[in-house]
Amino acid sequence: MVTVSLEPTLWVVSVLFLAMGLYGSVAPQALVKPFGVSLDGADARTEVRAVYGGFGVAIAVMLALAAIRDDATTEPIALTVGVALFGMAGGRIVSALIERGRVALYPTWFYVAVEVLGGAVLVAAVS
After folding, report:
1. How far apart are CA 71 and CA 76, in angstroms?
2. Which listed site, 11, 110, 112, 120, has its alpha carbon 20 to 30 Å from 97?
3. How many C-beta neighbours within 10 Å does residue 26 have?
4. Please, which pLDDT band fits residue 2 given cuts at 50, 70 and 90?
């Protein structure tokens, strides 16, 4: 069995969410370009800034607080974010099935792997 240390794991995943959040906030079109999405209008860019930007930064902050505080909230936060990452990967997998596998290795399957890995290390760290 592989042992995963919780605090460093929280920091690594926090930094990744922070990077996504900041990138999504300052360059929403660039963030979604690999998916073939065009953000034609302020509302579309606002949506990406909210979901990828604001949400990513909020998750990063929660993970960082969990790492710093190391109290009764630490493990539930890690578990919640880990399960959320599994949910993201699951959504991509379901979509790939609906699309009959017509999704590209990058970005779709690359992000499935990143999300499954992130979810797995967070869940393993609290187990």
Report:
1. 10
2. 120
3. 11
4. low
Q: Which of 22, 88, 93 is nearest to 61 (CA)?
A: 22
pTM: 0.90
Counting every residue, how long is the chain?
127
The token pair at 99 is: 């699309």
Rounded distance between C-alpha atoms, residue 91 and residue 49, angstroms: 20
- Model pLDDT for residues 86-114, shown as the tens digit of each residue: 999 999 999 999 999 899 999 999 999 99
Which is more confident, 4 or 17? 17
How far CA 30 is from CA of 1, 19, 26, 57, 78, in Å, comes to 39, 13, 9, 17, 29
